[in-house]
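Researcher: Next sequence.
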Amino acid sequence: MHMTDDIKELTGMTNSNGQQAPLSLYGKEAEEAGLWAISLKTVVHMVVNSCNHECLDMLQDFKSAGGYDVMRYAVLNGTSKHGKELIALIPLLTCCSTDLQDETTGSGSKLATNQQAFEVVEDLMLKYNPLVRAYKDEHNGQKPDFSREGAMQYLVNFSLKTAAKVRFTNGSTSEESRAQYDIESELLDCTLQLYSSHPNNYDILERKYNVSLSLFDRVSNIR
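Model: Next structure:
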């Protein structure tokens, strides 16, 4: 998909070898002007609409052209207010049908069948959520195992302990301080939107990604 390659150049993911138009914006200047969001919204909506009309060719092209990597790069490196528009694309891609033979999906389905798109949320939580970072650092990169006895209570206690540390220390990174919107709130809104759009999405996504870890952190900091 050539449009995905063009977005890579626009965001600065790839080098255009000096072929950039002199009056065009690239890199951070393009991001601040909203061009990253405009270009990705155009491509994602084309992919989503093609899936809604039972055509998966564009979704496969998007994947093979590194579309998910472009999304991940744009959201991770976007610090302007337009970053919210990029995060809003994640639920749309996550609900793209990946199997036309599955009668539970299809046109207009809100089932989270395309979980690869949701991995962007996991990457963002690892970068911006202090509880996720602290848990993985203390447990050798492992995610919490909720099947173990007492795991939920342990996570609650760990969350409170981490929140107390964060409250009295300046743990923000330069990327966090430059962001012009609340990234964690946008991620929670994105996740809760998916959970509420289909009764099976909570089980599908929580089983693999343990997004409740982020929810616990937000509750702890409110306290």
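Model: The chain has a mean pLDDT of 79. Residues 71 and 91 are 13 Å apart (CA to CA).
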